[in-house]
């Protein structure tokens, strides 16, 4: 009997009889699915049954290790790197300003990589890939090309598409759309590590449901990240609301810590949670807002970049004061350094 069939027998027997899988069993079942050997119906049953049962930490780690096993990984010539991903299915209520965050971060002294896909169901919202492609970015860069960009001090950032880094994971896109409900992969794919720094590799990831910080913190530590910032961000993203304090978490030294952040402590005063639009969020409007922010134009887009970058610098220990971190980012943007790095990445 196949690994997926064996797993289904254990996890899909109802609320009282279902049994948990070991890390190795979850890994084997996921690898069988990723290899294309599993029947799509069985693959969907496996993921839905796991979600209904609720995955254990060990099961999640097994699935995550399978995703990593089919993902190329390269070391980059930088001491520290921040890897993050907003939800792969995008945004439909706010412009995803984090698409511009890697350039702001690297200009501020912290090289960064964002990852995602061009579009994903069931939400089919605006993604980083759509915004960056509109700006002229090559979304089809390989892992090697992304590593070269991050290692280049004149660029220092990259976006890496799942279709290039993890094509076997990307091949499940149609199945996932047909499943309607988000499987565990939707959370775990944001934690894949295609690039690794020489000394420390940090993770930034968002959450919506209150049980996820403990899960994400445990996984980040077990998977090998040196730290993780787990954000109560807009639409599940990594930048929290600009309007009021938010309850976030940090994984530092293997321990999960609650972390309440107030934008006022970063010198931000806004009456909006993020960059809202009157009608439907579009990549075109997001690009326009982002370019204006990189040019130093004040407003929610500018403050989103300041807040997101300052949180990362503070979390990673680059600057101990939240206000000083924010002021440092403002100077980087206002002096044109962030836009210079963004343009260099676009033209690389």
Outline the secondary-structure elements:
Elements lengths: L2 H9 L11 H12 L5 H14 L3 H13 L4 E2 L4 E6 L15 H7 L4 E5 L11 H8 L7 H9 L5 E5 H4 L1 H4 L2 H7 L5 H4 L6 E2 L3 E7 L5 H12 L3 E5 L14 E7 L2 E7 L21 H12 L5 H16 L6 H13 L2 H11 L1
Parallel strand pairs: 1-5, 2-3, 2-6, 3-4, 6-7
Antiparallel strand pairs: 7-8, 8-9
Helix pairs in contact: 1-2, 1-3, 2-4, 4-12, 5-14, 5-16, 6-13, 13-14, 14-15
Give a summary of the structure in a few sentences.
This protein has helices at residues 3-11, 23-34, 40-53, 57-69, 101-107, 128-135, 143-151, 162-165, 167-170, 173-179, 185-188, 212-223, 283-294, 300-315, 322-334, 337-347; strands at residues 74-75, 80-85, 112-116, 157-161, 195-196, 200-206, 227-231, 246-252, 255-261. By secondary structure, the chain is α/β, with parallel strands linked by helices.
- Give the amount of beta strand, in percent: 5-15%
Query: What value does the average pLDDT take?
Result: 96
What structural class do the secondary elements suggest?
Answer: alpha/beta
In CATH terms, the superfamily of the largest domain is: Nucleoside phosphorylase/phosphoribosyltransferase catalytic domain
Unreliable sequence segments: none
How many helical elements? 16
């Amino acid at each position: 009997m196949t690994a997926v069939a064996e797993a289904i027998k254990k996890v899909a027997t109802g609320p009282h009889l279902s049994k948990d899988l070991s890390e190795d069993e979850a890994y084997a079942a996921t690898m069988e699915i990723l290899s294309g050997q599993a029947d799509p119906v069985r693959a969907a049953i496996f993921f839905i049954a796991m979600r209904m049962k609720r995955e254990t930490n060990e099961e999640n780690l097994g699935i995550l290790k399978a995703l990593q096993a089919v993902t190329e990984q390269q070391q980059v010539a930088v001491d520290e790197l921040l890897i993050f991903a907003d939800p792969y299915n995008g945004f439909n209520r706010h412009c995803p300003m984090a698409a511009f965050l890697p350039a702001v971060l690297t200009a501020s002294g912290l090289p960064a990589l964002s990852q995602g896909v061009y579009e994903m169901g069931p939400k089919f919202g605006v993604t980083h890939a759509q915004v960056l492609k509109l700006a002229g970015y090559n979304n089809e860069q390989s892992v090697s090309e992304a590593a070269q960009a991050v290692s280049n001090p004149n660029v220092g950032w990259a976006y890496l598409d799942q279709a290039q880094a993890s094509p076997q994971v990307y091949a499940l896109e149609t199945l996932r759309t047909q499943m309607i409900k988000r499987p565990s992969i939707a959370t775990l794919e944001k934690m894949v590590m295609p690039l690794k720094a020489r000394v420390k590799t940090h993770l930034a990831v968002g959450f919506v449901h209150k049980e996820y910080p403990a899960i994400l913190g445990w996984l980040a530590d077990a998977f090998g990240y040196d730290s993780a910032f787990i954000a109560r961000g807009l639409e599940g993203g990594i930048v929290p609301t600009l309007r009021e304090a938010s309850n976030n978490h940090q994984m530092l030294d293997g321990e999960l810590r609650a972390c309440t952040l107030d934008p006022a402590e970063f010198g931000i005063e806004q009456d909006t949670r993020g960059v809202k639009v009157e009608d439907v969020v579009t990549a075109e409007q997001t690009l326009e807002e982002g370019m204006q922010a990189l040019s130093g134009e004040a407003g929610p887009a500018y403050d989103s970049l300041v807040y997101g970058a300052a949180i990362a610098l503070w979390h990673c220990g680059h600057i101990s004061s939240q206000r000083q971190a924010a002021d440092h980012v403002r100077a980087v943007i206002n002096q044109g350094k962030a836009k210079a790095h963004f343009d260099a990445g676009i033209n690389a």
